[in-house]
Amino acid sequence: MKFTDGEKVLVVSFGELWLRGRNRGDYINLLRNNLNKQLEGEKYKFEPMYDRFLLRLQKGSDEERIKAKLSKLFGISNVTVSHVTKPTLASITRTARKMLRQVKGEERSVRINSHRTYKEFDFDSRDIIGKVLKVAKAAGFTPTTHGFTTDMHINVTKDAAFLTCEKVRGQGGLPVRSSGKGVVLLSGGIDSPVAAWYAMKRGIEPIYVHIHGYRDAEDALQSKVPALIKILSGYGSGSKTYYIPAYVLQSYSMKAGKYELILLKAFMLRIAEKIAEKEGAGAIITGESLGQVASQTMQNLSASQDGIKLPILRPLVGFDKDEIIRVARSIGTYDESIRPYKDVCSINAKNPATATQVKKMKELAKSVGLTGIVNRSLRLAKVVDGGAAARR
Ligand code: ATP
Ligand code: MG
Hints:
By secondary structure, this protein is an alpha/beta fold. The protein has 15 helices and 14 strands. The chain has two domains: 8-169, VC0802-like (2-Layer Sandwich); 181-391, HUPs (Rossmann fold). It has helices spanning 24-38, 63-72, 89-101, 125-138, 191-201, 217-221, 224-232, 247-253, 260-279, 298-304, 321-331, 334-337, 358-368, 370-379, 387-390, and strands spanning 8-13, 44-48, 52-57, 76-85, 109-116, 142-143, 150-156, 161-172, 181-185, 205-212, 241-245, 284-285, 312-313, 382-384. β9 (181-185), α5 (191-201) and β10 form a beta-alpha-beta unit.
C-alpha cells in the first residue's frame, strides 16, 4: 500500500469480533457495510486490513465529523488517528515533533511506545524512542511511564511509519444485524428508545412498530417518533417503521374499563409478532421494566404476552428510572422523548388493573375479537423505510 508523507489515517479496531471464530468474516463485512452506510457523503478512502480498517482522509475530509460518527457505531472498540510518514528515523522524529507541539496543556508528560512490523531498517525501536524523547523534552514534555498526559505509539512498517497519540473510544457492542432482526415496540417515551439502543448494541437490527392515536398516519409522521428513530439509526443500520393506528382496537376496548390498558399491550405484542413473522425477525423488544408504573407487574406481563411465541426481550428490566434517564441523555434521545405527544397509553391509564390473570386475558381477547382487530389494524399500517423516516 502506498502512502503519502503527511497523510492522516483513521485506524478502526473492532474488539469483540475476535470472539466470533468461524463467523468472523461475516461480522467484519457487516461492520464494513454499516460503517460505509453511516459515513455516506463523507470523504475518505476505505482500506480493509486483517484485523482493522484504515480510513484514509482526503483533501476536504471532515475529520471531526467522521470521528464523531465512528464513535457511535456499534462494533467498533476504538479509533486512532495516525499520522503517516516515511519509515526513516529523520521523518519519524520530524513528524513526532510536529504532533507534540500541537498538544495543548500546561502540565505535559509523555510515554513513547515503538513497534516495528518490518525490522530490516538500520534502526530499532530503542533508536526511535531515544530520538523522539529528545524532541519531546525540547517541546516541554516530561517522559514517564505512568500517569502520562500523552501516549504516543509509533509503528514502523515496510512502506510507512504510523504515529498516533489520539485514541477515540468506540461504542463497543456488536455490529447491528449480526444477531438478526428484532421488532422494537417504540412508544416515543423515554424507555423504549433506550431499550432499542441496548438491543442494537448486541447486534439486533431494529424494525420499529409504533402504535399511534391518530386517524391518519401522516400525523404520526409529523411527531417526534421519526426524529427518535433518526437518532437511533446513528448507532447502526435499521429504520424501517410500521405506524399502526389504535382506533380499531379502541372502538372495541372502550368498555373494558380497568383492562383497557392491558388489552392495548396484548394488541401491541400481537401486532409485533405478526410483523416479526413478515420481516423474519426473531424477537420482540419492549421498554418495559418491573414496578415502574402500576401496570408493570409480573402478572400483567404474563397476561399481556399470552399466546405470543417469540421471545420478548426487555433490556430495561433491571434499571431504575433515573438510570434509564441517564442513558437516554447520553445517547441523545432524552430531549425528543420528553416532548409532548398524544400517547395512546396515557389516554386510558387511570386505575389500570395490576394483577390480570391469564384466564381473564383470554376472555377479554375473545370477547372483543382481538385476532380480527389485529388483522384489520395491520391492513392500515403505514410503512416507512430509511431516508423517509429521517425527513422532518
Ligand atoms: P416508554 O417510556 O417506552 O413509553 P413507559 O414507561 O411509558 O415506556 P408503558 O406505557 O407501560 O411504559 O409501555 C411499556 C412498553 O410498551 C414501551 O416501552 C414500549 O415498548 C411499548 N409501548 C408503549 N406504548 C407504545 C406505542 N404507542 N407504540 C409502540 N409500543 C409502545
Ligand atoms: Mg410511554
